[in-house]
Design goal:
Blueprint: H1 2-11, H2 18-29, H3 36-46, H4 52-64, E1 69-72, E2 78-81, E3 88-92, E4 98-101, H5 103-113, E5 124-127, H6 130-135
Parallel strand pairs: 3-5
Antiparallel strand pairs: 1-2, 3-4
């Protein structure tokens, strides 16, 4: 995957810099959708000389060039997703958690493809996640198998 990304970035006249690679590696390694500050803190442990402006600049580059997704959560902070395949997100209005939705995304993208070439699919579904429903007492926990 790294060589594919490097080839694509080089074709665009840019370089896969060390900082960019560390940021991408981090985004690919986490199961959640971190803020720029969280990316900075994590990458800074491996690259202590990286600046916060460098992280923001590289995140912007990665999003604009389709290597990452930027998601606006209801907490006012942009979140980032290292999986740039088109998929939907469920955003909890209570905890601001972001959860990937894959099955519906694939079906809709396939159905839309008959109309032409799908270049981008974006959809955010807002509600309250299961954990918050249980925590607030609005839903009883599911029975464990």
């Amino acid at each position: 995957m790294e060589s594919e990304i490097k080839t694509l970035i080089n074709k665009r006249g840019n370089r896969l810099t060390r900082q960019r690679q560390f940021i991408l590696d981090y985004l690919h390694s986490v199961a959640y959708h971190p803020t720029a500050e969280q990316v900075y803190e994590a990458v800074g442990k491996q690259l202590p000389d990286i600046g916060v402006a460098t992280v923001y600049r590289n995140l912007k580059y990665l999003v604009e060039n389709g290597f990452a997704l930027q998601i606006s959560a209801n907490d006012g902070k942009a979140r980032y997703d290292g999986n740039s395949q088109y998929h939907f997100h469920f955003i909890c209005r209570h905890c601001a958690g972001i959860f990937d939705i894959w099955q519906v995304s694939r079906k809709i993208a396939k159905d839309i493809a008959v109309l032409g070439k799908v270049e981008q699919v974006e959809c955010n579904v807002y509600g309250v996640c299961q954990s918050c429903l249980v925590e607030t007492g609005k839903r009883k926990p599911e029975a464990q198998n």
